[in-house]
């Protein structure tokens, strides 16, 4: 089972994607300065495959 966790603020969104059967984080990231100049997305993936 995979679970996506979101933390939404007024101008940012943070997220993590978990693989519960393997008990590990598959991806995580942030979208910052939503609706403002200089907005950006940072995404990190766990490239190790099982």
What is the rounded Rg?
13 Å
Low-confidence stretches: none
Taking strands numbered 1, 2, ... along the chain, how are they ordered across the largest sheet?
1-2-3-4
Q: SS-based structural class?
A: mainly beta
Oligomer: single chain
What's the shape? elongated
User: How far is it from the N-terminal to the C-terminal residue, by CA?
Assistant: 14 Å
Count the E strands. Answer: 4
- SSE order, one letter for each helix or strand: EEEE
Number of helices: 0
Q: Could you report the average pLDDT, rounded to the nearest whole number?
A: 93
| Strand portion | over 45%
Could you describe the largest sheet, including whether it forms a barrel?
4 strands, antiparallel
The level of helicity is: under 10%
Number of domains as seen in the coordinates = 1
């Amino acid at each position: 089972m995979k679970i996506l966790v979101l933390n939404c603020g007024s101008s940012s969104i943070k997220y993590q994607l978990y693989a519960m059967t393997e008990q590990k984080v598959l991806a995580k990231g942030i979208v910052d300065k939503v609706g403002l100049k200089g907005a950006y997305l940072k995404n990190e993936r766990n490239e190790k495959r099982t």
